[in-house]
Structure to design on (326 residues):
């Protein structure tokens, strides 16, 4: 891990980001925070529908919010990469970062399973109906894991490991 | 004013928030502030998008209970916001970007209340086409929440 940090830290891209950190970080952080708002708002709305709330909303209409969630996730992935590449030592050995990635993986796999194997079946059901238990489970896992991603993400700066000796 | 702020800053509560050697103090309060922000701004964004006609087929009436979510999360953020303010009251009280953030929030809430009155007042307004004033306000709301979020983030940079 330390070797990875040391390699990443001295790549051309990392050095460039470090040089431009003064405006690049505030900009990327702002985008990252706006992205998380859009993601929670839109994915959260769909998750609530999966859980059986908001039944006046047809399932396929709630599904139309998902491209917004995907766009927001993509923006946050890119801005997150900027943070990681410019300050790898803050993240790679950070326990909060690993928990964040774990829940990100869970949220992602959960969403892919839904989209690939389940969404078509669900959309064929009564658009105003109470979703089956499997759909509710997917909605619940999604909500919990996105909030966990935010929780552990926000905790990262408070769990930064001590600098590697010799830096 | 300054004396009052310094007294706030020296209070036992402020000392605990800013100085306690526990993740439950400043880091957890800040994290709650972030979760609350995502709910307030995220829900307002969905409402504004719907007013602009973007998720077609979502009935306006579905957002009838959004105020419960928004005001609960807002209350969390008002409380955590005051707590986060305390340890550096003297500095933040005179920080321009913080004033910008507060102004954006105040205006966004006024816009939000106006939208609720215009569109969500009763069954008739809910089933009528969205008035153009509400669509303009939805755009203003998106801009103001963006401003509040960005200004909040910049508080760590523009001291």
């Amino acid at each position: 891990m330390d070797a990875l940090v040391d390699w990443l830290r001295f790549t051309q891209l990392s050095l460039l980001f470090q040089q431009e950190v003064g405006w690049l970080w505030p900009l990327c952080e702002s985008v990252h925070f706006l992205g998380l708002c859009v993601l929670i708002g839109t994915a959260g709305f769909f998750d609530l529908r999966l859980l059986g709330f908001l039944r006046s909303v047809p399932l396929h209409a709630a599904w139309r919010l998902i491209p917004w969630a995907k766009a927001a996730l993509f923006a946050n992935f890119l801005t997150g990469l900027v943070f990681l590449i410019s300050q790898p030592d803050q993240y790679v050995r950070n326990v909060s970062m690993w928990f964040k990635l774990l829940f990100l993986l869970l949220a992602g796999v959960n969403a892919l399973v839904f989209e690939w194997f389940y969404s078509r079946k669900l959309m064929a059901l009564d658009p105003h109906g109470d979703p089956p238990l499997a759909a509710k489970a997917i909605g619940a896992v999604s909500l919990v894991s996105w909030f966990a991603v935010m929780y552990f993400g926000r905790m990262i700066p408070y769990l930064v490991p001590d600098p590697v000796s010799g830096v | 004013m300054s004396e009052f702020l310094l007294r706030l800053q020296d209070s036992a509560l402020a000392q605990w928030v800013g100085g306690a050697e526990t993740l439950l103090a400043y880091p957890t309060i800040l994290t709650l502030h972030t979760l609350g922000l995502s709910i307030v701004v995220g829900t307002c964004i969905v409402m504004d998008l719907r007013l602009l006609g973007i998720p077609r087929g979502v009935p306006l009436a579905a957002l009838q209970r959004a105020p419960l979510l928004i005001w609960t999360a807002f209350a969390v953020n008002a409380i955590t916001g005051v707590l986060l303010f305390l340890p550096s009251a003297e500095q933040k009280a005179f920080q321009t970007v913080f004033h910008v953030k507060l102004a954006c929030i105040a205006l966004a809430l006024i816009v939000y209340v106006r939208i609720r009155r215009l569109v969500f007042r009763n069954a008739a307004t809910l089933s009528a086409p969205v008035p153009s004033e509400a669509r303009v306000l939805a755009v203003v709301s998106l801009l103001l929440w963006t401003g509040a979020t960005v200004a909040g983030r910049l508080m760590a940079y523009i001291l």
In short: Chain B touches chain A through 34 residues (CB under 8 Å). The first helix of chain B runs from residue 2 to 10. The helical segments of chain B are 2-10, 12-19, 26-51, 66-85, 89-92, 96-119, 123-127, 132-154. The mean pLDDT of chain B is 94.
